[in-house]
Amino acid sequence: MDKKLASHLLIFTLVLFVIMQIPFFKEIRLRSKVQGLFSSSKSTTDTTMELLSLENLLLKDELAAIRNQLQYEQKECNAIQAKVIFRENISFGSFIWVDRGEADNRHLGAHVIAKKSPVVLGKGVVGVVEEVLEKKSLVRLITDPKLQVAVRVDRGKKGIYLEERLKELATLLKNEESLFKNEEHKNLTMEWIDVLLEKVRPLKGALLAKGVIQGLKNPAWRISHNTLSGYGFNYDFADEEGGPFDLRTEHLILQGDLLVTTGLDGVFPRGLQVGVVKSIDPLKEGGYAYSIEASPAVHELSYLDHVQILPPI
């Protein structure tokens, strides 16, 4: 193999190996890999500071993830496991009965099962308790058009995370001349990083457009297609998650985006998975919000055999 080509492949493999350690591609900590990358090179003050900065960012991300998981688990600890015992044919696709009721509240010494108690399967929304009897409860499924859930698009923070790490990698490599055979090798590496940056920038949106999700009004269509309807999706205001976006000029909702609860409907806690975007209707002339269709995050609602009931918020 030509030595020049071999050198190019070597430096490309090095960059690709480091990038593949980022959680978006593989859940392995980048910190140890970056430190190992430069262990054989002469340390400089700038490189040390960059590594410390990178380590601090990673620790902040890990701490935030742990905090969110603990909050969810604390909430989930109060959940009651329930078995699906009946589905009414007349409202097939809208209601199920579960084997938990007021007797279970007395047994637990807590008012967990109540009207508007969220019903989930893992982190996915199933529906909400509609009526509580002594030993059973009626659950309205998310596929029912009368159950409206406040959601927002959550594309995750992977785009932001990747962009930050790629920029940090570029800075680190620029300070390590000994890794490159010559200036051409260095330029080739920087070009590959630029290509990767261009690919991850469309993923930067973390929490985007807010809207409302509900079941389709046609029962037959709702059952056979397992589809949810969404409306009012816009983000023309700033909140704690970021600044406003103009959806009329910047298409921020994409097929495959995850929809999560916002906690603003007074029924579901924030962060539960509701569905995945299937399609986005074109924005009508003069319109300011998108309508969408989505698949429920909990698949095959018609065949559920068990669920969890959370305390009402």
The main β sheet shows up as: 6 strands, antiparallel, barrel
Shape summary: elongated
Query: Structural class, please?
Result: alpha+beta
Radius of gyration: 25 Å
Residue fraction in strands: 15-25%
How many separate structural domains? 3
User: So how many helices?
Assistant: 7
Order of helices and strands: HHHEEHEEEEHHEHEEEEE
Head-to-tail CA distance between termini? 66 Å
Strand order, main sheet: write it out.
1-2-5-4-3-12
What is the share of helical residues? 25-40%
Low-confidence regions = 20-31
Return the average pLDDT rounded to an integer. 76
Number of strands: 12
Helix/strand layout:
Layout: H1 3-19, H2 30-37, H3 45-76, E1 80-86, E2 95-98, H4 102-108, E3 118-121, E4 124-132, E5 137-141, E6 149-154, H5 158-174, H6 183-200, E7 207-215, H7 219-225, E8 228-234, E9 258-261, E10 273-280, E11 290-296, E12 306-309
Antiparallel strand pairs: 1-2, 1-12, 2-5, 3-4, 3-12, 4-5, 6-7, 6-9, 7-8, 8-11, 9-10, 10-11
What does this structure look like?
This protein is an alpha+beta fold. It is elongated and about 75 Å long. The chain has helices spanning 3-19, 30-37, 45-76, 102-108, 158-174, 183-200, 219-225; strands at 80-86, 95-98, 118-121, 124-132, 137-141, 149-154, 207-215, 228-234, 258-261, 273-280, 290-296, 306-309. It folds into three domains: 3-71 and 158-203, no CATH class; 79-142 and 304-309, Rod shape-determining protein MreC, domain 1 (Thrombin, subunit H), CATH 2.40.10.340; 149-156 and 205-297, Thrombin, subunit H. The strands form two sheets. The chain has a six-stranded antiparallel barrel.
